[in-house]
Design brief:
Helix content is 0%, strand content 35%. With 196 residues, it is mainly β. Strand 6 and strand 7 form a beta hairpin.
Length: 196
């Protein structure tokens, strides 16, 4: 019934998920009926979307390090949903999943440092998925200093030796890889130990 202020209200029982089209007709005390109001069509969707899949370009894996300071973050999710991208639980951006179920995020250039990217999917009804598994990674664009190096048997530049298997050793930044070349042809790669 319409109240003295001309207002009415209807609270339906809980609606199942699905499509609805509500309209009204007014009936007066004499039983006369108005024309129908314009219908309001809507959909109820209480389903929780699945979490998005996601991977970083440049073969960056969880716990990895890259010199790519603008890696592409992409994956799949429910068509038409919105993927919310976070770094360390701070929202970076929102992208729409295309008709093939794919999404892509191209960040602005990242400063050197550590990052933790994850996503949450939001559907048209505002339902949020669980968070995806975070991908933690480090951006390092700093150029390492050259390695020092010397040959065993006191071999010096331009020298001659009868040692046909001289040891080549030196120092470099801890944890880096030293690539050894002969006449610009790569021979091997070795990892710098904790002592440098």
């Amino acid at each position: 019934t319409v109240d003295e202020a001309g207002n009415w209200i209807f609270n339906p029982d809980a609606l199942d998920d699905g499509a609805y089209s509500f309209h009204t007709v007014v009936e007066d005390a004499g039983g006369n009926l108005s024309s129908a109001s314009t219908a309001i069509g809507f959909t109820v969707d209480t389903g929780i979307p699945d979490a998005a899949t996601g991977a970083l370009s440049d073969n960056i894996t969880h716990g990895g390090t890259t010199n790519e300071n603008a890696p592409t973050f992409s994956g799949t999710a429910e068509i038409g949903t919105t993927v919310i991208i976070y770094n360390n639980n701070i929202e970076l951006d929102r992208v729409t999943v295309d008709e093939a179920g794919n999404w892509i995020f191209n960040p602005d250039a990242l400063d050197d440092g550590t990052y933790s990217f994850h996503t949450v999917v939001e559907d048209a009804a505002g339902n949020l998925s669980a968070a995806s598994t975070a991908i933690n990674f480090t951006v390092d664009t700093g150029i390492p200093d050259p390695a020092t190096g010397a040959l065993s048997d006191n071999i010096t530049h331009g020298g001659t030796t009868n040692d046909n298997a001289p040891t080549f050793s030196g120092t470099a930044e801890i944890g880096t890889t030293v690539i050894i070349y002969n006449n610009n042809i790569e021979l091997d790669r070795v990892t710098v130990d904790e002592a440098g």
